[in-house]
Design a protein that fits this description.
Blueprint lengths: L9 H11 L13 E6 L3 H11 L11 H14 L12 E9 L9 E13 L2 E12 L2 E13 L19 E5 L3 H9 L9 H6 L9 H10 L9 E7 L7 E10 L2 E8 L5 E9 L2
Antiparallel strand pairs: 1-3, 2-5, 2-7, 3-4, 4-5, 6-8, 7-10, 8-9, 9-10
Helix pairs in contact: 1-3, 2-4
Length: 279
């Protein structure tokens, strides 16, 4: 298990991703596991993240924040020579977070990242990037990001019936610069989030919000109402074109919550998720 003594440089890694993206071909995922021990949280950075995602400023880490800490390790793995798919152009389909207990800003963390479960998708191939946070050797947080690489799919997707969105419990104005602001705190400087001209090269009419920002923004709306241990699943649907006006709706489902984010004018879905008590 390769052990990292410092956080990987994302600027250099994204440059590498652009230069090597067209040469990546493969059929197997690497079995590499990256680990970075003794990670401390920068309080200033945490506060900036809280403000961008609209979490309260506390000594407890938002449930989505460890994803940001592990993201450089994910990018390092996805830009290694043995990784079969290019980073640029991979689509974030879904994200699951399992929180066993809250994390505090003064705890020393060990980050661990690996990739698994390569499988067919109607539009190509998909795989799971697994991130873990351990404290004193005990796992306390797990994130599963499912990515799609388009091309050579297994068949056509089933047509989706149009479903009218629920009545929003809140309407949020998403500013045009949220992609750049979230990129500054997350390190995710994929060009589709930064500028409309760059986004058009990838088929988007305008820059789009990060999927993990939309998930974080939704979970910020639940602060003070969630248990200490829970699992939150999200499926990303249509992108949020910036600037935007979005509707947010939440409802109780069994013992947990269901929530949706959608275009406030057209009802086009951006995200659907559930929060389930327990881990």
């Amino acid at each position: 298990m390769p052990e990292l003594t410092a956080t990987p440089n994302l600027t250099a890694l994204f440059g590498k991703a652009v230069l090597t993206g067209f040469t990546r071909r493969g059929t197997r995922l690497p079995d590499t596991v990256y680990e970075q021990p003794n990670v401390s949280v920068d309080r200033t950075h945490l506060a900036r993240y809280d403000r961008v995602c609209e979490f309260r400023l506390t000594d407890e880490l938002p449930v989505t924040y460890p994803h940001v800490l592990a993201f450089p390790l994910q990018v390092k793995l996805m830009t290694d020579p043995g990784f079969p798919f290019p980073l640029i152009g991979s689509v974030h389909l879904a994200n699951r977070i399992i929180r066993i207990r809250p994390l505090r800003v003064d705890e020393r963390l060990t980050l661990r990242v690996h990739v698994e479960n390569l499988r067919d998708h109607a539009r190509g191939r998909q795989f799971d990037m697994i991130s873990e946070v351990l404290v004193a050797g005990e796992p306390v947080w797990t994130g599963v990001s499912t990515y799609l690489r388009r091309g050579g799919g297994s068949g056509a997707e089933k047509a989706r019936e149009r479903v009218e969105p629920p009545e929003p419990t809140a309407v949020w104005r998403v500013p045009g610069n949220i992609g750049r602001r979230y990129a500054e705190v997350s390190g995710d400087r994929n060009p589709i989030h930064l500028h409309p001209l760059a986004a058009r090269l990838f088929g988007f009419p305008r820059a789009i919000a990060h999927g993990m920002w939309t998930k974080a923004r939704c979970l910020a709306a639940f602060e003070g109402r969630l248990p200490e241990a829970y699992t939150v699943d999200v499926r990303f649907k249509l992108p949020v074109l910036l600037p935007a006006r979005t509707g947010f709706a939440a409802s109780t489902v069994d013992q947990g919550w269901g929530f949706e984010l959608f275009d406030a004018r057209t009802g086009r879905p951006h995200l659907a998720g559930t929060v389930t008590p327990g881990a």
